[in-house]
Amino acid sequence: MKRLSLLAYVVGGLFFLVSFAFSVFYGYKVLTHDLSAEGGTVEKYNYHFVLVTEELDNAYWRLVEKGAQAAAKEYGVFLEYSGPKQADIDEHLKTIEMAFASKVDGILTQGLSDEQFTPLINRVVEKLPVITVDTDAANSNRMAYIGTDNYYSGYLAGKALIADTKGQANVAIITGNFYANHQLLRVEGFKDAVKAETGIKIITVEKSGISRVRAAEKAYKILKDYPEVNAFYGTSALDGIGIAQVVDKVIKSGPVYIIGFDTLPETLEYIRKGTINATVVQEPYEMGYRAVKMMIDLIEGKKVPPVVHTDTRIMRSEDLPENNQDEWEAHR
Question: Any idea which fold 33-148+286-309 has?
Answer without folding.
Answer: Rossmann fold (3.40.50)
